[in-house]
Amino acid sequence: MAQVLFLGGLGRSGTTLVERLLGELPGVCALGEVVHLWQRDLRDDERCGCGERFSACEFWQRVGKSAFDGWENVDVDRVHALRDAVERTRHIPRLASAVKPAADVREYASFYARVYAAAAEVSGAKLVVDSSKHSALAHVLRAAGDLDLRVVHVVRDARGVAYSWTKRVARPETDGADEMTRYSPGRSALLWNAHNAAFGLLARRGVPVRRIRYEEFLADPRAGLRRLADFAGLPLQPADLDFLQPGSAELRAGHSAAGNPMRFTVGRLPLRHDDDWTRALPAAQRRLVGAVCGPMLRAYGYPLNPEETR
Ligand SMILES: [Zn+2]
């Protein structure tokens, strides 16, 4: 049975960084955001984290062979149709309340389960990591019978997340021709509430969910990784964390299929808590996000007045 650690949370919450650090641990195979594999890799042949085009990456070609006897046997239109039918935030209440998952939910989940099992087999890893983030997908994966699913729910201060969504970021996969999505602070505040609540619901449905605060994780990545390894049932030796130095990590190339541009970083990655929002997010927007997300910010232990953190 494939053992999967799913990294969830609203985008720009730090899931890519957590995944890159987890990917350095022995016995871990980090896959990136598998949710985008079908379109961006199978269809668009974008770059893998190793730098190769998807079709030229030996790892992913072996995974496709093992999972589907070749990627050409995957009906991407079918995957898209299933996704549109089941993997939507508005479907989460239905997904969460279903005693027995519907056939289309099980079929959609099985595509992921096959990728995870094949990746574990090809890499020899004990644990595969999917940083797809989407809460609806995490709910769907409950329907995959042959999966040991554990979820890390990454939370970051909603105001930091909102500020990040306002910034322009080019997508290196498209050689800068395309930009990552941007959201207004009001919109990202609503999304932040919805996605984080969805992971709370997942935990109440019996899925092992470990919530981490991104800011806390960055303050002590060594302790944070030890706790996550423990949660995932991964035995660690002290030397396994030697890639961490004070304030940085030394990364090797991985095979992340899709996601944040940080997936391409090889070598030294600075581990610095980015609190630019405390200076750069306009006061009115900060108040708006603080008001919309206030109850959950408080529940997660974030001070509503950022001056309190100083
Ligand atoms: Zn690759």
Notes on the structure:
One of its GO terms (biological process) is N-acetylglucosamine metabolic process. It comes from Actinoplanes cyaneus. GO terms for molecular function: N-acetylglucosamine 6-O-sulfotransferase activity. This protein is α/β, with parallel strands linked by helices and 310 residues long. The chain has a single domain (2-309), classed as Rossmann fold (3-Layer(aba) Sandwich), CATH 3.40.50.300. Helix content is 45%, strand content 13%. The chain is built from 13 helices and 8 strands. The protein has helices spanning 15-22, 37-43, 58-68, 76-86, 92-97, 103-123, 135-141, 158-166, 185-204, 214-219, 221-232, 277-280, 283-299, and strands spanning 2-8, 28-30, 127-133, 147-155, 209-213, 244-245, 248-251, 267-270. The strands form 2 sheets. Strands 2-3-1-4-5 form a 5-stranded parallel sheet, with helices on both faces. It has a 3-stranded antiparallel sheet with strand order 6-7-8, with no helix packed on it. A hairpin with a 2-residue loop joins strand 6 (244-245) and strand 7. Zinc ion (ZN) binds at residues 48, 50, 52, 57, 59-60, 255. Zinc ion (ZN) is lined by residues 48, 50, 52, 57, 59-60, 255.
